[in-house]
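User: Can you help me understand a structure? I only have the sequence.
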Amino acid sequence: MTAGIIEFWGLNEEPVATTPTTWEVAGKYILKSVGTENAALNNIRLTTALRSHGVPVPQIMKTTDYRDYLLADDGCYLLMEKLAITDF
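Assistant: Let's start by predicting it. Here is the structure, written out as tokens:
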């Protein structure tokens, strides 16, 4: 993962790897590497559709400059709220 990437969301906490493509941040967020911009857009569309039907899916957090995802040299990233067990 690119060093300092979490700062694009205004966070200072160190991400902790949970899988090779996801990191937990501050116990409240999940940072996910989705590979490509197209994959990020598909993820955003799916999440939006599911939320509109009341399905408990994570809220995608906007970057400090109001983007839904970050396109970096090594891929594309989404930051999402971590769902609590009670959200199901």
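Now, to help you interpret it: The first strand starts at residue 16 and ends at 19. The chain has a mean pLDDT of 91. Let me know which part you'd like to focus on.
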